[in-house]
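Risk mitigation, structural track. In case the binding assays with oxa(dethia)-CoA fail to produce interpretable data, a predicted complex structure has been prepared as a fallback.
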Amino acid sequence: MKAEIKGIGMYVPPRVLTNFDLEKILDTSDEWITTRTGIKERRIAEEWENASDLALPAAKEAIENAELSSKDIDCVIVATSTPDMTFPSTACFLADKLGCSKPMAFDISAACSGFIYALTIANSFIKSGQFKNILVVGAEVFSKIIDWNDRSTAVIFGDGAGAVVVSASEGESDILSAKMKSDGSHWGSLYCPVGEKLKMRGRETFKLAIKSMETASKKALEEAGLTLDDIKLVIPHQANIRIIKALAERLELPEEKVFSNIHKYGNTSAASIPIAMYEAWKEGRFKKGDYLLLTAFGGGLTWGAIVLNF
Ligand code: UT7
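Fallback model:
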């Protein structure tokens, strides 16, 4: 059985926080944020909005695009570092809000790599014959764990959700390879103690991000038996435009083969790849039958890459 991405959806809260808004509350500037990160604005959830609230419209759209109903979903996986509660899982809340028929539902915690970790799990579930239609979501409300007095992190992160439906199919579409890794010895580069705010050693994280995504991308390509020439579009985690450009340089990729929408949303952690994938798809940057490379990096440290035939 093959694992086909049958539908995609996304949702971001309407409230926009621009670099100019941040200039008013922090010792920063639009010029610094733009040149150092590529970010111009990000979305911020309302006080009452949790990860499952952002996940709901994204999931509904993905299910609709897959031409399925929520009753067809037999497993829900939510990748998030900002869950609604410690437990129950955000996936349980989401499945209930969607009106699913008692699917297996659980969250995974792999920070910014969460979505590709979740997609790897979904792929294995489909290939083992365990499930037919799996909803995979990345949903984050990082605004709730940001220290709004810390200019080194407050300017970077944003809120949002992206979702895909992965279905068992017999066509050409498939997840061809998935290389996921972690190294807990670097946990101090990026972390958030329970009940506290996020902390990051930016420069250290920056260097580790480029190297690890480059290595994982090459390994995933090799395992899929493909080269970068076969890839229609690379969709990297949206952490910093300089990281994305450095990765493209190391992989010797022309700019048009690498997608970025970081200027609009900042770093939405586990939601960044499905949001980017959705927008790239809507813009016609890839279609059924095209090969994609997804790669991410985040706290843990965690990182990885996936090659798929869309
Ligand atoms: O999502 C997965 C993991 N996260 C990442 O991959 C993030 C990786 N790191 C980064 O993207 C970058 O390291 C940052 C954007 C966080 C920081 O950029 P940088 O070029 O590495 O800056 P820096 O931390 O080396 O700081 C340079 C200067 C410092 O001032 P001094 O010491 O040179 O006087 C900072 O205090 O910039 C200062 N600075 C700021 N200035 C204005 C730090 N944040 C700001 C700010 N506005 N918001």
